Amino acid sequence: MNLSIIGSGNIAHFFAMRCIEAGHFIHEIISTNKVTGEDLAQKCNSQYQADYTKSTNTTFLLAIPDDAIRALAKSTFFQGKRVIHTSGSIGIEEIRNMCDHLSCLWPIYSIQKDNLPTRQDIPFILQSSNENSRRKTVSLAKCLTNNLTEATDEQKSILHLNAVLVNNFTNHLFAQSEKLLKKHKLSFDLMQPIIENTVEKLKTSPPKALQTGPAQRGDSSTINAHLDILAQDAPLQELYRQISHSIENFKD
Asked: Which residue among 29, 185, 220, 244 has its CA within the 20 to 30 Å range from the CA of 174?
């Protein structure tokens, strides 16, 4: 596949490197960021272009933020062309009028360009506007993953919400923990084993069965002691209180 990638950030790097490794040709990297755009183009042995309207290619991968995808969807430039976007929160129906051959390949994974994942089982969600687009996109997906799932717009929205819950929200709790530990001259490294243990156990047991802690066992004395410790940090204290309440009242 002769592909032009619009974007030069984390997702663009991941797609570009995987495609190159699989023998696909990256025609050009299109980015308003000249530094990162030229850098990625050099890695791909391809051209750099700042203005997508100057491209002569017919197949584009949009590895850019959601608002930027929505802005491009209003352009008539992509009519008659093939577009694959990588957004988890934009459904096919929202931008269907962008072009006749529209697809989505969204990885349920947090990708950093300085530490690109090598695993082949990253879940990817596939959406396509028609069967022709589907076949072409499935072919491209083979160099990215062996774990491909098709989903409706509604299903993808649910998956995106859950990705935020299990990744972004939990990482925020890690950040809160690190901040609190630093305040008391303790290292966040002490939490690494329990974090790893929690994730490892999820491979064999459902989350509800693994729930432990004071809220799970109704230990109000410990909960109140923790809330006292957090008295000088009202937002974190309230977060602790709300999550404890949610654990106490959880029903599946």
From this structure: 220
Structure tokens at 42: 């050099």
| Residue 6 burial (10 A CB sphere; 0-12, 13-18, 19+) | buried
Q: Which domain holds residue 94?
A: 2-151
Instruction: Tell me the β-bridge partners of 29.
Output: 5, 48
Cα–Cα distance, 84 to 60 (Å, whole number)? 6
Percent of the chain that is helix, strand, coil (3-state, to 5):
55, 15, 30
> Are residues 172 and 138 part of one domain?
no
Residues sharing a CB contact under 8 Å with residue 131, sequence separation 6 or more, in sequence order = none
The per-residue pLDDT for range 205-216, each reduced to its tens digit, is 999 999 999 999
Q: Which residues contact 161 (CB under 8 A, 6 or more apart)?
A: none
CA nearest neighbour of 8 among 57, 59, 47 = 47
What are the backbone angles phi and psi of residue 119, rounded to the nearest 5°?
A: -65, 150
Place 252 in a pLDDT band, splitting at 50, 70 and 90: confident
Q: Are residues 186 and 236 in the same domain?
A: yes
Name the token pair of 157. Answer: 């929205």
Q: In whole angstroms, what is the distance from residue 34 CA to residue 48 CA?
A: 8
For residue 17, the one-letter residue type is: M
Verify that 61 and 147 share a domain, yes or no. yes
Strand partners, 59: 82
The pLDDT, as a whole number, for residue 23 is 86
Other Cβ atoms within 10 Å of 179 Cβ, number: 12
Q: Are 144 and 107 in contact (CB under 8 A)?
A: yes
Tell me which residue has tokens 């929200």: 169
